[in-house]
C-alpha cells in the first residue's frame, strides 16, 4: 500500500509564500501586537485563492493596503445589510495607493453575488480586472462587530454565519459623483439578490399551489392542457427555473377582462409594487388583442420575456411565466406572474423532454404529417430541436408550424430568408434571418440589424448567431419597439431589402456579367473571375466597372497584352478623368507612364494598381487606374476624343509614335494620331531647314492655338486624303479663309510666324505617304 506523500512547493508557490510572508511582516510591523495575529490570519485567508500571477505582479504595499482596507470594511456590519464602498485609493486619503478603482463589499454569503456584482459593473461600462472573494464564517455581536473568525470548512459555533467579502478592481473612476452612482447601483443589485434568495422558497410554494389548482381545473381547458401545464410548473420547480420574483393579479369584472395588481403580493425582486415587468399588465389600455384573448381563453399559462434585464445572476431579459389562477370551482380569478431565468438544463435538454415544449413539438409534427422516419420528418425534428429555446417557450404552435415548415423548405438553398414573430404585448419582434454561410460576417450582421431597426423603428437589444454544419448561418435578432410602438411591416418587401443587402460583390458581378454577355457566356466568365479581383478592387469598384475591366482583360490576354481606356465617371469632378491600363504579366512603372500622360496634356493625381488573376490564366493582369486632370474640358460627345487618345497612347507605348509635347494636341485640338505625326513631321522639316524656333516652342505655339492647329490638320487632309479629295482645290478655300481669320486674332508675333509657316508648308506640299 502506497503511503500518501506531501508535495514539495514549486517555484511559483514558493514565490507566493515569499510575497505573503513580506505582506504579513508588514502587518506585524505596523499593527499592535494584540491584533496583529488576527489581521495576519485574515490576510492569508484573503489572498488564499488569488491567481498567483496577480499576487506576483502587485507591489507588497498595495497587497497590504488592499487586505487591510477589506479588514476595516468587514469589522462592523449590521445584520441583514450590505456594506459597499467604491473609491480610488490615495495615500493621503485612504492610507494606501492603487491605480484602479476599488469596490469593497461585505454581505451575507448567498448565491449569485459575484455574477450580479460583475454584471452591474459591466453594465456601467467598467472592466473588471480582478475579483478577490473569500467566504469566511464570522461571529458578530449585536452591534455587528466581529468577535471571532473561522476557517472555511470548519465547524463554526452557533451564531457564526458565512459572509462574502468582495474586493473588485475596475478601471479608474475619478469623479466622486460617478463613484457614488456605482455604489448606489450595487446596493440596489444586492437588495434584489437578497430579496430573491430570501423569497425563492415562497415563490416555489406558489408554483406548487398553481400546479395543483391548474390540474384541478382540467374540465375548463382543452384535453391534456391542464395536465401539461401542471407538469411544466412541476418541471420548473426541479431546478430548471431560477425563481427571482412573483406577484398576483385579480381579474376584474367588466365587458372586457382586466387585471388589477393585488397589493403586497410581490415576492423577490417584485416586492416593491412600483416595479413593473411590462406595461401590459399595469395599464389595461395597452393590453394587446393577443393578451386579452389569453385572458378569455382557457389556456393555462403564457411564457414571455420582461421589459427589463435581470439584475440577479445573468444580465439578460427576465423570463416571465404568466399562470392563470383558478378558484376551487375552476373559474379564472386572476393571474400569477413569476419572473426568473431558465437554467442551463432548460436550454440543453431536448424539447421532447420538457413539458409544454414536447406538446408543441408533437402538435407541429402532427400538423405537418411527415413520416417521422423519413427525410422531411427527421429534418423537421432537427429544426425544432435546434430552434432558439427562448423562442420555443414563447411561440404558439400554429406560428411555430408555419415558421418551421418555412425553414424546412429553405434547407440547403443558398438564399436569404426572414421569419418574424411579434411579441404578444407588442414590445418587440423576434427575427430569424437565414443567410448563406459564406456571405455571413460582422459587416452583414450590422447591415441586417440596421435594416430591421429602421423597418420596425426600434433598437436591437440582443442578437445570437448559429454557425453549424449547414450551408446557412442563422441570425436571431430581438428588436425592441420604439416610443411609437411597432409599425405594420411588409415582410416580403423587408426580406427583399435584406436579400439585396446580403448580396456580395461576387453576386452582383455574376448578375452583371449575365446581363452583359448572356447566361452561358456570363456564367462562364463569373466562374473564371469569381476570385480574381483583390479586396481593394472590390471595395472601390462596382460590378459594372468590373464587367468593363473583364472585357479589357480578356482582350489583353487574347491580343497584345496591353489595353488602355480613357473615361470620365459620373461622380468625377469637372476636369477629372480616369485612365485605366490593362497589362499582362507585370505593372507598368509609374516612371514610364507619367511622362506619356503628361505629354498628352494630363496631370496624374493618383494611381491605384490591382493584380487580377482569372482562373486558368498563366499570368496576372494588372489593372492600373490613374486619376488625372485635363486642361481641356471634356466634350459632351466624347467618343472621338476617347478613341483618338487610346489609339495615340497605344501607338506611343508600342513605339510607333514619338512621345513629346505634340501629343497634347490629341485632347486639346481633337486631333488623331496621324494628324499629330504630320504636324511633327513638318516641325522636323523646319528644324532641318534651320528654322529659328526650337521644337518645344513650336509645340507650345500649336498647343496655345488648338483651333488653328485643327484647321491646319484639316487643310492637309483636304489636300491629300483620298477619301476627301475631289481633284480640285475648291474644298480648301473655306479652310484657308478660316485660317486667315484665326491668324488675324493672334497677337504674338512669334506665334504668328510659326503658324503661318505651317500653313505655307502644307500648301507647298505636292504629295505624301501619310495615307
UniProtKB/TrEMBL annotation:
Top-level taxonomy: Bacteria, Pseudomonadati, Pseudomonadota, Alphaproteobacteria, Rhodospirillales
One Pfam family from the record: Bac_GDH_CD
Domain NAD-glutamate dehydrogenase N-terminal ACT1: 42-186
Domain NAD-glutamate dehydrogenase catalytic residue range list: 739-771
Gene source species: Azospirillum griseum
Domain NAD-glutamate dehydrogenase ACT3: 563-633
Gene Ontology biological process terms in this record: L-glutamate catabolic process
GO molecular-function terms, A-Z: glutamate dehydrogenase (NAD+) activity; L-aspartate:2-oxoglutarate aminotransferase activity
Segments forming domain NAD-glutamate dehydrogenase ACT2: 418-505
Domain of life: Bacteria
InterPro entries: NAD-GDH_cat (IPR028971), NAD_Glu_DH_ACT2 (IPR049062), NAD_Glu_DH_ACT3 (IPR049064), NAD_Glu_DH_bac (IPR007780), NAD_Glu_DH_HM1 (IPR049059), NAD_Glu_DH_HM2 (IPR049058), NAD_Glu_DH_HM3 (IPR049056), NAD_Glu_DH_N_ACT1 (IPR024727)
Name of the protein in question: NAD-glutamate dehydrogenase
